[in-house]
Structures are given as structure tokens and as C-alpha cells.
Amino acid sequence: MQDRMAPLRDDVRLLGDCLGDAIRNQIGEPGVARIEQIRALAKAGRQGDTAAQLQLAQTLKSLGDDELLPVARAFNQFLNLANLAEEHHRIRRRNEAQGGEALQALLQGLVDKGVSPQAIMAAIRQQQVELVLTAHPTEANRRTLIMKYDSMAASLADLEREPEGSQGYRRSLARLRELISQAWHTDEIRKVRPTPLDEAKWGFAVIENSIWQALPEFLRQFDEALEAVLGQRLPVEVAPVRFASWMGGDRDGNPYVTAEVTRQAILLGRWMAADLYLRDIEQLNLELSMHQASDELRQQTGDAAEPYRHVMRAVRDRLIATRRWAQASLKSEQAPTEDVLLCPQDLLEPLRLCDRSLREAGMALIADGQLRDTLRRVCCFGLGLVRVDIRQNAERHRAVFAELCNHYALGDYAAWSEADKQAFLLRELQNRRPLFPRHWQPSADVQEVLDTCRVVAQQKDDVLGAYVISMASAPSDVLSVMLLLQEAGVHHPMRVVPLFETLADLDQAQSCMAQLLAIDWYREYINGDLEVMIGYSDSAKDAGQLAAAWGQYRAQDQLATLCREHGVHLTLFHGRGGSVGRGGGPSHSAILAQPPGSVQGRLRVTEQGEMIRFKFGMPDIAVRNLELYSAAVLEATLAPPEPAPQAWVARMDALAAIACQAYRQVVRDDPDFVAYFRAGTPEQELSKLPLGSRPAKRRVDGGIESLRAIPWIFAWTQIRLMLPAWLGSEAALAHAQQQGWIEQLREMYREWPFFRAYLDLLEMVLAKTDLGIAELYEQRLVPASLHPLGRQLRERQEQVVALVKQLKQSDCVMEDNPVILHSIEVRNPYIDPLHHLQAELLGRDRAHSDDRVEQALMVTMAGIAAGLRNTG
């Protein structure tokens, strides 16, 4: 039997050898021997050699300050190269299979179930999947290095195409060695934090370098699957997947995202879109040299010898003018001239004209090439590249009305009842006089909110997404934003989306939206389309993963029922992160695990931090993920799972209540917990790692309750305890065992996508935990008085591992997923030295801060994140 992992191992070995050569050229053979000794000890330790484990710890502890950084960098670089090799292997495996296979299999399955071709095509035409790129700070790699890794991937692909020993092979190998050497001699850690505009540019770079190529390829495969199964084609104007962004628009807790930053982020998107379309048009100008044309086209081009080129040159001139205007407007606001493209229709019309003419003249084959790709890009990306969402905390909007009511001597807005707030806001929404007094001088924070609304009012609606209200809890939170936007001059009904984040807010989501839907003015505003965002991060931090997952499911189910009763189409916006503790996991199974009837052809979901690169950083992988998203939404719409039996719902209610109580007893009520967390993890040191523009805490003077979900999970991941993803599950599953529910839970696992997704993700996280590593940090960093809590947490983790194995009737975690298990086991000998080193560096840094120690410490953080991947 062919060893399907052999090519991956060969790639890892080649990349490792190249890295070893680069290191040897800088620090010499003794330094390489030292690193190799550490790797060999780590590998032997993983195989159960206790003496090797002790020697590894002693060797790393004895490193001098000058040796710390090269050792940390060596293992960090290797783990990034291992990621690269795995991604390349995924592409290799995909190329061996037929592209679009998931879509074709799904379409055939739907037909076999009796779904008519008409119903399938109607669902595809109406499908609206929007992937929202966010800059949450879990991408530890610099953009400079990411670009080098992309080039390395291209070199690996070149090596595969060239015969070994040929001139082409030798050149590709030399280029690969050069790139790895470049990476070795490049600092992994940014010297300064990126600005919000830097983050926006990074997001645009992902689109430029990967998604721009991936989208038309994905749609071609979709087209081929439809033609093969249904004998129909995908209409060119249909864009099943689109893109939005929080980069430059997410100001919740980020003081660096201002109204001016948002304005510039939108302009940067316009500039980049114009630049990318210009490349497409230049290519079309080269290719469309034909002279046959329809009468419709000739009416515009007259007797031009090459009518298509005539049109393309006119489009090119307008794109140049658009790019020039956007660039000038970045420095100071500029009124657009008549030749600037402001509406996607202005770009679509000449392209469609050429498309119709080519088909009428018998050149459909040409029309289906580059021209169709460009048309599809315009339908997907518009003129802004991404639709920018605005996100702000509900407290900031309440502060506006508190100051305004105080100015008008109307009383204390914050003290008003919810009914009084709603009545006031509704009166003002229907009042023709201005809301704000002419000479009012609000505070700086309030002025910033008003300035943001004015920036929104200045934009065309096609470059804007939703206005998301984080920590929303009442109808007045939604109405207040609608009033602020109306007062700023927003004339189109911008989507105003409440984000329900805590468990209590999720439980109240249905009640909140029911109150809004009872308001005639609100129903007229939304015009039959309602969008609600479900928060995964803060709900899990608030109640634990199991209780949060069930709270999210229950809220979605209740909202879907409410909207059916009111005849309103619901779009659920899922605020997922990369880690399991923030809703992460395989996208396909996550979508199919949603409550029946909650998808209905529409889905918005955040793609965050490092997951953007893992899912969309390479065109071939991006095609696969676009296919998975589209197929899952289509399946969830046309063939949703059966509703869960009431007995299962009752079991989940009970399990979630127990899990939530157990989680909060530790995190909220144990007086030693915060001290243990801060001593035993690098939580406080994470602020030194300049990952993103946003501060780690919502309030600089706040305690653990103000800590953002990302550093909360990132810190536990660094020490391999992964506590946010499993704490509480051990108590719930132990209760199930005591009550004799295990057989019923096994049935739920087999038959209920929600419970299967929960347990599979829990198992994946448990496979990445390592109690020996967690204890290592404790012994080096935590005061002895807190050790009993650490022992208790590790015992709870052991308990949940045993219960999951019992439930799944397996001998080890991930027994039924050997690929992931193999990936974890292969990486461990390279992550272990970083853990040992990090624990030592934390101790040194806390005793006496030193630049060399801090630099090495940050490299260990980045390396562990690279090795464990979905860390935030």
C-alpha cells in the first residue's frame, strides 16, 4: 500500500535540512549541534525516556542569555516550515482528486433525496455567504515572513514539477534555500505594533495574493458541478460567497480605530480594487483583439477596428482615474470627478456589453474565459474589495444619549427604564427637527461616535457592511444606533446588528428581538430582513465552552422560530475565532451543526487572525474552503438535520447548567484562581508581543473580567492546559455517567450534528493538552501555596479525557482521526523545547527584565502558537 504521508515527510526533511544549513552558516557547527542535541533529547523524552526529559530541562536552563534567541528561533522556524509542508501536502492531495468534488457529490445527493433542480438553482441564486475578515491578534507571524513562506510554497510546487537533477529542479532548490536563509536572517517579531491600517493592508494582501485568484476558480468548479449534475450553469451575477472586513472598522475596545482610520480603510479598499481590476482590464485589452461585434456594441464603438479593445481602454481610463482619486483622498478628502467609478454597475455595464456581443457573434468560448472571471470578481468584490463593518460597544452609544439628555436637562438617560428609552428614541426617529443642538460641545469619546456616523453617511452603501453593536442587551441599544445614523445623514437602511455575547444576553436574545419586531417603525426599517450576531468568545469566557455552545444553539433556534412567526428572513452572523474556546473548528461541520432552519441560504461568519492565512493564504486551499462553505450552507438549507428530540434537549439543558456552575466555581469563585492564572501562564507578558493594534484588555485597570477572550485562551494554550475549552465538561460528563446517561449520549453523538461537533472539538483540544508541560510551568513559576489548585485542574483534565474515551469507546483521544493525531505527535518534539525555554525565560524576565530574554520569550510565544495552530 502506498504511504500517502511519505511526500509530506520528505518535504519536512528537505525544509529542515535547508534550515539547518542556514543556521550553520550563521552560528557554526557547534551551535547546530547544540540545537540538534536539544531536539534529540525532546524526541527521546516524548518516547518515555525520563533521563532525557531531565537532561532536556537542565540543558535549556543552562543556556546563556546569548544562546537563548538562536535556540528559540530555530524551533520556531522549523514549526513554521512544518506548517508550510502540511499546507503544501493538502494542496498535493487536493490536486490528486477532482476539483469541486464536494459540490458535485452534494448536488447529486440532493437530487437523490428528491430535491428538484429548480429548488436547487433557486437556493443557489439566493445564497448569501459572507466571510468577514478580522484582525484579531492571533497571527504571530509578520507579513514579511508570510510573504516569504508563500514564495517557499511556490518553490516546493516547482520542485514537484521538475525532474530531480534537472536544471529547473536545481534552480528551484537553490531558490528555496535562499528563501529559508532570508527567513532565518529576518526578525520574527515586529518591533512595533501594527496600526489598524497596517492590519487592513494585510487583509487586502491576502485577497490580492490568494483570494483574487481563488474566487473565479471556485466559481468555475461550481459551474462545472452544476452542469454535470443538473445540466445548468451558474449565472454570472450570482456570487455565493462574498467578503467583508472588520479591519479599520472594529473600534470596540480599540482606541486606535477612529473615524478617520475607517475612512482611510475604505479608501484603501477602493484603491486596491481599482488596481486589481486594472490588471484584469489590461489583460483583457491584450486578449480581446476580435473585430466581430454585435450591433449593440457597435452603437458605442462606431467603426472601431477592434471594438472590444475600444471598450477596455475606456474602462482602463476610468479605473486609473478612480485609483488616482482614492490615493489623493487618503491625504485629504477629494470630491470625485465624473470619470471616477463610484457604483459597481458602472464597471459591470461595459463588461456585460462585451460579454453579450461575444456570445451573439459565436465566441462564447472567449466570453467564458478571462472576461467571465472579471465579471464574477466585480459581482463578488464590488468597487470596495470588501464591505467594511462598523463595530462599537453599546456603552459608547448610551454615553451619547446620556450627554445629550443631560444637555437638554431631560434627566439621567442611564437611569431611565427600557420602556422610557425606547419611547424617547422612537419619538426622535420620527421627529423632523434636528436631534443635536447647533453649538453642543460633547466629550471627545462622544464626538468620535458622531464622527464615525458621519463617515458612514459619506460612503456609498456598496462599500459598507453592517453596524455591529457589541455587548447589546436591549432593544434601545439597536434603536439608538439607528437614530445616530439617521441624524448623521445615512439615507439607506444600513443593517444594524446586535451582538449577543454573554450567556445571559444569549438567553434574552429572543425576547429582545421580539420587542423590536413588535415596533412598526422597526419592521418597516428592516424590510423583512433581520441580522443578528452570535458571540462565541465572550460567552465561552463567561460560562465555559459547553454551556456557551448550548446557549448559542438555543438562541439561534429561538431566533429562527421567532422570525418564521413574523415572516422575517433571518441572517445569523457567527463571531467565531480560531480556537475551540472561541467557536473554532471545521467550518463544514460547524454549519451543519446549526439548528434546523437557522441557515436558510444566508450566513455571515468571522474569519480571524491566523485562520485567515491557514484557510485562505494559498489559492488552492482557499478554493477548497470556499467550496466547503458554499456546500455546507446549501446542504443546511435544502437538507437540514431533523430537529433534536425533546429528551436530548432536556439532557443538554441539564449538562449545560452543571458545566456552567462548575466552570464559574473555579474561574469566578475560587480565590486562588486569578493568582494562579497570572503566575502560571504568560498572560501578562503577552502584552509585550506586538500581535495586533488592539489592547489586550478592554480597560487597562480591569481584572480578569476585562481581559479579552483572545489573550485569555492564548495564555492557557501556551502552557498546554487548554482550560477554556474543557473546564466544566468534566463535571457535566461525570454527572451523565453517574445518572446512567452514557448510552443516550452515544446515540446523541451518532445522530445529532450539534453534539457530535461539540464532542469532536473537545477531543481535538484534549489531544493538544499536555499535563506534564502544564506542571512544568507551575513548578517554575507558581508559588507553592497555589499548587493544590494546579493539581486539581490537572485532575479535572484527566477526568474529562477518561470520560470522552469512555463515551467514544476508544483507547486514546483522536483514535478515529489519525491524521491530526500524527500531526500533533510529529510537532511535539519541536514544541517541547520552546515550552521548557519559555518557562525558564518567564522566570528570568520576572526576576530581572533583559532585552535578550524578552526577545527570546516573544519568539517562544510565536513558535508555540505556530506549532499548535488554532490558538486564538
What are the defining features of this structure?
single chain; 872 residues; alpha/beta
Structural class: alpha/beta
Strand order of the largest sheet: 1-2-3-4-5-6-7-8
Percent helix: 55-70%
Radius of gyration: 28 Å
Largest sheet: 8 strands, parallel, barrel
Report low-confidence residues grouped into runs of 5 or more.
579-584
Mean pLDDT: 91
Number of helical stretches of at least 4 residues: 36
Describe this structure in words.
With 872 residues, the protein is α/β, with parallel strands linked by helices. Helix content is 66%, strand content 6%. An eight-stranded parallel β-barrel has the order 1-2-3-4-5-6-7-8, surrounded by seven helices. Strand 7 (569-575), helix 23 and strand 8 form a beta-alpha-beta unit. The chain is globular. The chain starts with 5 loop residues before the first helix and ends with a helix. Residues 579-584 have low confidence and may be disordered.
Topology:
Blueprint: H1 6-46, H2 50-61, H3 65-96, H4 101-112, H5 117-126, E1 128-134, H6 143-161, H7 167-184, H8 196-230, E2 241-245, H9 259-287, H10 295-301, H11 307-331, H12 344-360, H13 364-381, E3 387-393, H14 394-407, H15 418-429, H16 444-457, E4 464-470, H17 475-488, E5 495-500, H18 503-507, H19 509-517, H20 520-526, E6 529-535, H21 537-543, H22 545-566, E7 569-575, H23 587-592, E8 602-608, H24 610-616, H25 619-638, H26 646-669, H27 673-680, H28 709-718, H29 723-726, H30 729-738, H31 742-751, H32 753-768, H33 771-781, H34 787-808, H35 818-847, H36 851-868
Parallel strand pairs: 1-2, 1-8, 2-3, 3-4, 4-5, 5-6, 6-7, 7-8
Helix pairs in contact: 1-2, 1-3, 1-7, 1-35, 2-35, 3-6, 3-35, 3-36, 4-8, 4-25, 6-7, 8-9, 8-13, 8-25, 9-11, 9-13, 9-16, 10-11, 11-12, 12-13, 14-16, 15-17, 19-22, 21-22, 22-26, 26-30, 30-34, 31-32, 33-34, 33-35, 35-36
